[in-house]
Amino acid sequence: MPQGPIIDRLRIFLVESPIKMARAQGVGSVKGSVKRVLIELTTACGLTGWGEAAPWEVFTNPAEAAYATLDVYLRPIVVGHPARRLRELLAKMDRAVIGQTDAKAGIEMAVLDILGKAQGVSVADLLGGRVRDTIPLSFSIADPDFAADLARMHSMVPAGNRLFKVKTGVKPHAEDMAHLEAIRDAFGDTVDLRLDYNQALAPFAAMAVLRDVDRFRPTFIEQPVPRRHLDSMAGYAAALDTPILADESCYDAADLLEVVQRRAADAISVKLMKCGGMLRAQQMMAIADTAGLPGYGGTLWEGGIALAAGTQLIAATPGISLGCEFYMPHHVLTEDVLEQRIPHENGAVVVPEGPGLGIAVSEASVRHGARILAEA
Ligand SMILES: [Mg+2]
Fold it and tell me: Which residues of the chain fall below pLDDT 50?
């Protein structure tokens, strides 16, 4: 039995990318630039796969930790491994290092990119085949300057964008209420409004706040309270008409089992960097589907490589039906490392055609599209 392509080189790039706008998102603020790690795997037969670890230090790890994990601990496991034995590779990485889900997700996407290219099929094909060709795009209203966000909405809505997620709980409640009112006044029900508190509310006073914002008919309210307050989340899910979505409360399948058992949410945000990759995300969605919880395609600060992986995942995972927030390369990063950006059409992300992740990346496009802080 031939074992197929063997991975014989791992290269990593710690990169920093400038961003166009400040983002204030409750758990942390970002201004100026974001860091992430890009991964290039090459096989002995000359195939190349790209991956990306896009951690955020308030959510998973610092980017420097992902870089060190890849360089020191995962390199000896990955180099020499047959690309086809991916699940075995994931198990070995888990035995070698606990956590570090972003680094492991980055390796997995590079391996799947190679396997797709080797067979002439897309990663979505490897994950079961497409159930959708486009994914509705949600844009986050998170600029400290709300007027700037409202102006963005006035140009995005006519272009077909319908999904907007307001980062509430960063400013005083009265300001949030005024902003939600301004959005509904300007756009009525043509926009699908979602709210994300990023754990900002204290359980002590959250119910009154949530009942207040409920009147703006959001599609869901994401993570109103800190992640471990599952019983409080269950209370809001039971009391409110608006569904409650778990993000920080639900990193992986073990978290999800607890969310389901305690009825703490009606939906979940799936992020490759939280759960450790596409296979783990599909494992989570098997649980979520069974429990009747739809998924939403969340992000940290991913660039085009990781978002291509997210796009392939959602294309092949029916339960992730609430859209995605894959807007970074089009709206936030001033540049990206792909030779061509993944197209957005009519308020949706178009799942790229072509083998593997469906994107073109090269060392030249990486050096052109990001500032390299370290490489190994
Ligand atoms: Mg969130």
Answer: none
Amino acid at 276: G
Ligand 1 centroid, distance to 55 Cα (angstroms): 14
* Closest to 128 measured CA to CA, from 5, 271, 282: 282
Superfamily of domain 126-350, CATH level 4: Enolase-like C-terminal domain (3.20.20.120)
CA 269 to ligand 1 centroid distance, Å = 7
Express each pLDDT in 304-351 by its tens digit: 999 999 999 999 999 999 999 998 877 777 678 999 899 999 999 999
> Which residues are registered as beta bridge partners of 15?
36, 372
User: Checking DSSP bridges between strand 267-270 and strand 295-297, what pairing results, if any?
Assistant: parallel
Beta-sheet pairing, 163-167 with 138-141: parallel
Output the pLDDT for position 30: 64
Is residue 247 within 8 A of residue 273, CB to CB? The reply is no
Backbone region of residue 217 per phi and psi (left: phi > 0; alpha: psi in -120 to 50; beta: other values): left
DSSP state, residue 190 = G
Quote the DSSP letter at residue 200: -
CA of 26 to the centre of ligand 1 (A): 9
pLDDT in tens, 176-235: 999 999 999 999 999 999 999 999 999 999 999 999 999 999 999 999 999 999 999 999
Long-range contacts (CB closer than 8 Å, 24 or more residues apart) made by 358-365 = 358/122, 358/123, 358/308, 358/311, 358/312, 359/50, 359/304, 359/305, 359/308, 361/50, 361/304, 361/305, 361/337, 363/40, 365/337, 365/338, 365/339
One DSSP character per residue, 39-92 reads: EEEEETTS-EEEEEE---TTTS--HHHHHHIIIIIIHHHHTT-BTT-HHHHHHH
Place of tokens 């992000």: 299
Whole-Å CA distances, 366 to 129, 336, 360, 361, 374: 29, 8, 11, 7, 13
Architecture category of domain 7-120+362-375 in CATH: 2-Layer Sandwich (3.30)
How far, in Å, from the CA of 330 to the mean position of ligand 1? 19
In the chain, where does the domain assigned CATH 3.30.390.10 lie?
A: 7-120+362-375
Residues designated as active site: 167, 325
Residue 140 tokens read as: 């986050």
